[in-house]
Specification:
The complex is a heterodimer of chains A (488) and B (195). Chain A has two domains: 352 residues, Cytochrome Bc1 Complex, Chain C (Up-down Bundle); 89 residues, Cytochrome Bc1 Complex, Chain D, domain 2. In chain A, 66% of the residues lie in helices and 2% in strands. Chain A has 23 helices and three strands. A two-stranded antiparallel sheet of chain A has the order 1-2. The N and C termini of chain A lie far apart (78 Å). In chain B, the strands form two sheets. Chain B has a seven-stranded antiparallel β-sheet, with no helix packed on it. Chain B has two domains: 40 residues; 114 residues, 3-layer Sandwich (Rieske Iron-sulfur Protein), CATH 2.102.10.10. The longest helix of chain B is centred in the N-terminal third of the chain and has 37 residues. Classes of the chains: A mainly alpha (488), B alpha+beta (195). Chains A and B meet through α4, α5, α6, β2 and α11 of A and α1, β3 and β4 of B.
Chain lengths: 488, 195
């Protein structure tokens, strides 16, 4: 056997022992080297830490989200009860839900920092058009995650914020109404809306994020790190430093900060759950999460025919300008102080967005009616959080079964049904047991005469199963038939 | 960026220079891998710490009882002190199953056991689950389905049942008799709870 020289060579290739074997099979060392030796022109900097910070929050959102799904049920009947169960009953449930909720806000914050850094450093320049585009789409997807996730607890705040959000979509000319119905799964918000938002939040958008994230990282590595503002976007010339160890440690410091910050926040100020959604509530004043406050305020200014400008034209222009940025701004200058137009428009948009959000807050606090209602909503939430968890009454329960007995004849039949021990084999409410089949819905199969006949003269199959012929007087038999026929 | 020790003058994308002294390279890689071990261990510790709430969240149903049947009141114990016939009471059974609860009705018998102590019997026949009525004339429980019969204390007399009528867990609190309803497996000779 010529195995010895061969094994020697392969042992040299990837190292010895189990690690060597793994390396030869999987190329782990190569992969690790590829990841860690990424050259950074100009060396490691704290300005570059936001991308991996986002990656960490994304992973944290996946983990907490998957765990929350252990108890969550996406339906208008159960969503709120299950979230209340998570928040009030399950160990660490309030903490994990808060982590997930605050994580969403942290995601938007770090995303804005990442975007700002890329923009200010001019890092989108130099053959990085697709990289920039994938980042823009990722931004949209993250906002989509925040929007769809917000509805899922199905409390007052969630319900009405999403009602307003989906209503805004209907303002879009021509397709607006269809868009709204598509999002809601009908004209109104209901259990189909939850299903749709759940599928988007848990399957569709995460799948898109995975794909785009992979391409974003791939494109980033392909183009190479952009480096500091005085680096050439196409031909980096500055001395490089590998990603590991200094940049890794800097990135990890942000991760540690996020873990500590989100952990302390979730522990000390758990995210509240409000009372269950009540669509009939006409008093409720909906307010979006902080990251949608600017858009919310902006939409307030546009009504009637002019709304097409504010709701469609201006945002579309803005989105197109942002997407097309690396195609429009072709100069190789990256230093912000030499890019007055870019920096001016960035500052302008940022100031407008913050101004709109502040304006919204200002108006709320200076309208005594709204301020009062908002503080009432807050105290309602606090009240609801203080109440103990109330389990949901299952639909198969007694209370539900008794509702159907409005007919006095059927009600009399129920007492006979129980006195004759019919329920013994056919179960309470005729739901069926191991001993005998269910009777629910039998009224649609047989008419009263047939049922009476069967009770007096059971079929051979029935007799075999233990059913004995009825010896009731005609009145009682009629009542029993009325009851059996009413079973649903 | 000349001040940072790790910065090398290689063009981007290239491996670290080959001409560096072998000893320096070895020292470099030694320091890097030591740091790597530190980072890996730190991450593992933080990860372990973070997984504590996750694990507690996931194993909640193992530690706390999430399914439960509540105690149902039957009335003051004095009502049952002088029983000639078994007394029948309809109780509301409230069963808890995670975040939902179900309420159903079931009848139970309050009787005296062989030693004369108050006990509560399930009316569900241990044969095939029919409701067993009390036969006043014969002074015995007689199942209408397959003629199983039981003595007033629930012991099996005759018929296809493989065991006597099932006693239910009961207790007296503030002079009130209370019972916890349970279903038992049918067609077996021993009492096995099925929920």
């Amino acid at each position: 056997m010529a195995s010895k020289p061969g094994s020697d060579r392969s042992a040299q290739e990837g190292g010895r022992g189990f690690r060597g074997w793994l390396n030869r099979r999987m190329g782990l060392d190569d992969l690790l080297r590829q990841a860690l030796d990424e050259p950074i022109p100009g060396g490691a900097r704290f300005a570059y830490i936001f991308g991996s910070g986002l990656l960490f929050i994304f992973v944290s959102q996946i983990v907490t989200g998957v765990f929350l799904a252990l108890y969550y049920v996406p339906s208008a009947d159960h969503a709120h009860t299950t979230v209340a169960y998570i928040t009030k009953q399950v160990t660490a449930g309030s903490f994990l839900r808060s982590l997930h909720s605050y994580g969403a806000s942290a995601m938007v914050v770090v995303l804005l920092l990442h975007l700002s850094q890329t923009y200010i450093y001019g890092s989108y320049k130099g053959r990085r058009e697709i990289l920039w585009l994938s980042g823009c789409v990722l931004f949209g997807l993250v906002l989509g995650m925040a929007f769809t996730g917000y509805l899922l607890p199905w409390d007052q705040r969630a319900y009405f914020a999403t009602a307003v959000g989906t209503n805004a979509a209907s303002e879009v000319p021509l397709i607006g109404e269809t868009l709204k119905r598509m999002m809601r799964g009908g004209a109104d918000m209901g259990t189909l809306t939850i299903s749709r938002f759940f599928v988007a939040h848990v399957f569709l958008i995460p799948a898109c994020i995975f794909a785009l994230l992979a391409s974003h990282i791939f494109l980033f590595r392909k183009a190479g790190a952009a480096g500091p503002v005085d680096e050439h976007p196409f031909h980096p010339a500055q001395a490089t430093e590998p990603f590991y160890p200094r940049q890794v440690l800097m990135d990890l410091s942000l991760t540690a900060l996020l873990i500590i910050g989100l952990g302390i926040l979730s522990f000390l100020i758990p995210v509240p759950l409000g009372p269950p959604a009540n669509p009939a509530d006409t008093q409720f004043v909906p307010r979006p999460e902080w990251y949608y406050l600017s858009i919310f305020q902006w939409l307030k200014y546009w009504h009637g025919p002019a709304s097409i400008i504010g709701i469609l034209v201006i945002p579309s222009i803005l989105v197109i300008l942002v997407l097309a940025l690396p195609f429009l701004d072709r100069g190789i200058e990256r230093r912000p102080w030499k890019r007055p137009i870019a920096m001016g428009s960035y500052t302008f948009v940022f100031v407008v967005l913050i101004g709109l959000a502040l304006r919204s807050q200002y108006l709320d606090s200076h309208d005594s009616g709204i301020a009062q209602q908002l503080s009432k909503q807050k105290s309602d939430e606090a009240d609801y959080m203080r109440q103990p968890f109330e389990p949901e009454l299952s639909s198969a329960s007694l209370a539900a079964a008794n509702v159907a007995l409005a007919d006095p004849l059927a009600a009399k039949g129920k007492t006979i049904f129980e006195a004759q021990s019919c329920n013994a084999c056919h179960g309470d409410g005729g739901v069926g047991t191991a001993a005998a089949p269910k009777l629910t819905g039998i009224g649609t199969k047989f008419d009263s005469q047939k049922l009476e006949a069967l009770l007096k003269h059971p079929s051979p199959t029935m007799t075999q199963g233990g059913m004995s012929p009825s010896e009731l007087n005609p009145d009682d038999l009629k009542a029993l038939v009325a009851y059996v026929a009413s079973l649903k | 960026m000349t001040g940072t020790g790790e910065v090398s003058n290689n063009p981007p994308g290239r491996e670290p220079a080959q001409n560096t002294g072998a000893m320096q390279q070895a020292a470099n890689s030694g320091r890097r891998s030591f740091l790597g071990v530190l980072v890996a261990m730190g991450s593992a510790c933080v990860g372990a710490l973070l997984s504590v709430p996750l694990v507690r969240f996931a194993i909640f149903p193992l530690i706390r009882q999430t399914t439960d049947t509540k105690w149902a009141p039957l009335g003051p114990l004095t009502d049952f002190s002088s029983l000639s016939d078994p007394a029948v009471r309809t109780i509301q059974i409230e069963q808890l199953d995670g975040w939902r609860r179900a309420v159903s009705e079931k009848s139970v018998y309050i009787t005296k056991d062989a030693q004369g102590r108050v006990q509560v019997l399930s009316s569900v026949c241990p044969h095939l689950g029919c409701t067993v009525p009390w036969n006043r004339e014969k002074k015995q429980f007689a199942c209408p389905c397959h003629n199983a019969s039981f003595s007033p204390d629930g012991a099996r007399i005759a018929g296809p049942a493989l065991r006597g009528m099932d006693t239910l867990e009961s207790k007296v609190a503030d002079g009130q008799l209370q019972v916890r309803f349970q279903y038992f497996r049918q067609l077996v000779s021993t009492k096995e709870v099925i929920g």
